[in-house]
């Protein structure tokens, strides 16, 4: 496709000069426009936008200086060449200062001079035009990039302010906080302005600050700092556990640290509660298995114990029958001994040994009976009522070894002629075993004692059992939570926190109550109130 013909405007008040220059320009292949003065010339420029303007400097109406000045101000893309027949250097300088691109003198006798001037001016115009186009494109790119950055920042800050996690931006290496979202104030409890007045590590426990500072100040490139459990503190000094992830980002011309924090305190507490519940569930299964095992052991012990009891009676009878014969032999042989003992000491020793065997066998039989009853509760026990003295005695029997191991001062006070109370004996024994065990474990030494007593409940008409110890006692706060499931002051030593909660549930099912009185350093009293047994057919426990 052929290049378009360039148009050149010639402005001169002398017709001969105008026509002569136009002829030369046409010979060079340009289209030519003519104007007799500056006013018409400027109007032509505004309408047709020529590629180049030749203008005389000295003209009526509007001289060339004004043409150059107005074109420079209003149409700077059109180059101008000033012409003058005077040959005054001062005029040339003035024209150039006003914006003329070149200057030639009249009369124009050298065609090469015109050719060179036009080529130089048009080349300069081309470069100026390309530069303007480049600057325009560059400005468009800058404008588009600025718009994109603004949109990106708007999205970032929308994400920043609406995010549920605490987000804190800080400068490295000083770790001075530059900005924080509302979730940060919610997490740490500080107002926004107070957060900006702090350095980031000050939110963490003293033991954690060194690790946080070292981790954050050495972040480079795409690396990140991640900690699942960091000990922090809020504005009131309360302990928090947070998880944190931090990495470097660029905001504007500055590289800052983006720190995202999440409160993990509740999560960790729930995980710990779940772990504790699983441990207690396992322990409950173990206790159930132990109960079944105890029942089996009771049966296995019962058989050899029956053999011991029977053989003890038989051996005692044999001994009594053989004693006269041995006495006669002793009279003949005064130094006679049995088992290394002089015969004179043997009868009393043998009676004591046989009595001990019989008492031991009866004690084994009593313990086995209690284990059987404890591991297999009978529904019949509730219908006929419960003898609280008997229940207390059974519980003490089962705990006899533990009592003798932990205290030298155990006292049992049983009131006579107590009415039967409502409930199952085995379940009342379970409550008592738990209360007496707790009292024993509360004693700081063997010199401290425990008193278990029964009495008639005058106000309610039933029975009352009291377990009083001289242990360490409890605070008001501990007493307030004592019946809560899984609450225990002895988790480290194996306490499950279920004993008192279960005991309270058992007594409430029986229509009874369990309450505690305690004073730090002076011991604790556990008091059981049980309602009287209702006659058959009048609401007895089925």
Can you offer a commentary on this structure?
Its EC number is 2.7.13.3. It catalyses: ATP + protein L-histidine = ADP + protein N-phospho-L-histidine. α9 (265-332) runs antiparallel to α10. The protein has 4 domains: 7-136, Response regulator (Rossmann fold, 3-Layer(aba) Sandwich); 163-263, Beta-Lactamase; 279-349, no CATH class; 382-530, 2-Layer Sandwich (Heat Shock Protein 90), CATH 3.30.565.10. By secondary structure, it is an alpha/beta fold. It has helices at 15-27, 38-48, 64-74, 89-98, 111-162, 182-188, 192-196, 206-217, 265-332, 346-375, 380-383, 388-398, 400-406, 425-442, 476-481, 499-509, and strands at residues 7-11, 31-35, 52-56, 80-84, 102-105, 166-171, 176-180, 224-233, 239-251, 254-263, 337-338, 341-342, 409-413, 449-457, 462-469, 513-519, 523-530.
CATH topology of the largest domain: Heat Shock Protein 90
Helix content: 40-55%
Oligomer: single chain
Instruction: Domain count, please report it.
Output: 4
Report strand order across the widest sheet.
Answer: 2-1-3-4-5
Annotation, overall tally of beta strands: 17
Q: Major β-sheet, in short?
A: 5 strands, parallel
Structural class: alpha/beta
CATH architecture of the largest domain: 2-Layer Sandwich
Name given to the CATH homologous superfamily of the largest domain: Histidine kinase-like ATPase, C-terminal domain
Record keyword descriptors for this entry.
4 domains, 5-stranded antiparallel β-sheet, coiled coil, Beta-Lactamase, alpha/beta, 542 residues, disordered C terminus, Rossmann fold, 16 helices, 51% helix, EC 2.7.13.3, His_kinase_dom, Sig_transdc_His_kin-like_C
């Amino acid at each position: 496709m052929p290049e378009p013909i360039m148009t050149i405007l010639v402005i001169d008040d002398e017709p001969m000069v105008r026509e002569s220059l136009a002829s030369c320009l046409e010979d060079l292949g340009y289209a030519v426009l003519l104007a007799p003065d500056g006013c018409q010339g400027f109007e032509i420029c505004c309408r047709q936008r020529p590629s180049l303007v030749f203008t005389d400097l000295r003209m009526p109406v509007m001289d060339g200086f004004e043409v150059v000045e107005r074109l420079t101000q209003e149409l700077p893309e059109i180059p101008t060449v000033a012409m003058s027949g005077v040959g005054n250097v001062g005029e040339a300088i003035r024209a150039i200062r006003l914006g003329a691109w070149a200057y030639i003198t009249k009369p124009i006798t050298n065609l090469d001079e015109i050719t060179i001037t036009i080529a130089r001016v048009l080349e300069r115009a081309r470069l100026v035009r390309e530069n303007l186009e480049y600057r325009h494109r560059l400005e468009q790119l800058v404008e588009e990039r600025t718009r994109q950055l603004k949109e990106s920042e708007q999205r970032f800050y929308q994400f920043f302010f609406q995010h549920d996690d605490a987000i804190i931006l800080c400068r490295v290496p000083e770790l001075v906080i530059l900005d924080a979202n509302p979730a940060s104030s919610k997490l740490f409890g500080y107002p926004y302005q107070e957060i900006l007045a702090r350095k980031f590590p000050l939110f963490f426990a003293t033991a954690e600050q060194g690790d946080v500072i070292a981790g954050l100040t050495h972040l480079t490139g795409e690396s990140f700092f991640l900690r699942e459990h960091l000990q922090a503190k809020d504005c009131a000094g309360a302990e928090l556990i947070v998880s944190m992830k931090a990495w470097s980002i660029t905001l504007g011309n500055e590289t800052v640290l983006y720190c995202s924090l999440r409160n993990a305190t509740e999560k960790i507490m729930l995980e710990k509660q779940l772990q504790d519940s699983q441990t207690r569930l396992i322990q409950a299964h173990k206790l159930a298995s132990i109960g079944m095992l105890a029942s089996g052991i009771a049966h296995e012990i019962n058989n050899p114990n029956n053999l011991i009891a029977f053989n003890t009676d038989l051996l005692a009878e044999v001994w009594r029958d053989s004693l006269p014969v041995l006495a006669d032999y002793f009279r003949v042989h005064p130094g006679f001994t049995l088992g290394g003992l002089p015969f004179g000491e043997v009868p009393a020793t043998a009676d004591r040994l046989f009595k001990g065997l019989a008492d031991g066998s009866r004690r084994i039989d009593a313990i086995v009976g209690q284990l059987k009853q404890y591991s297999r509760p009978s529904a019949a026990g509730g219908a006929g009522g419960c003898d609280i003295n008997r229940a207390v005695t059974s519980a003490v029997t089962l705990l006899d070894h533990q009592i003798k191991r932990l205290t030298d001062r155990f006292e049992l006070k049983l009131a006579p002629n107590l009415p039967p109370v409502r409930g199952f004996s085995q379940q009342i024994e379970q409550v008592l075993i738990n209360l007496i065990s707790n009292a024993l474990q509360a004693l700081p030494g063997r010199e401290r004692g425990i008193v278990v007593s029964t009495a008639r409940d005058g106000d309610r008409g039933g029975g009352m059992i009291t377990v009083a110890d001289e242990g360490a006692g409890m605070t008001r706060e501990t007493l307030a939570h004592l019946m809560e499931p899984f609450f225990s002051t002895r988790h480290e030593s194996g306490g499950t926190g279920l004993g008192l909660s279960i005991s309270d549930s058992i007594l409430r099912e029986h229509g009874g109550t369990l309450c505690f009185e305690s004073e730090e350093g002076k011991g604790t009293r556990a008091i059981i109130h049980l309602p009287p047994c209702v006659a058959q057919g009048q609401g007895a426990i089925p």
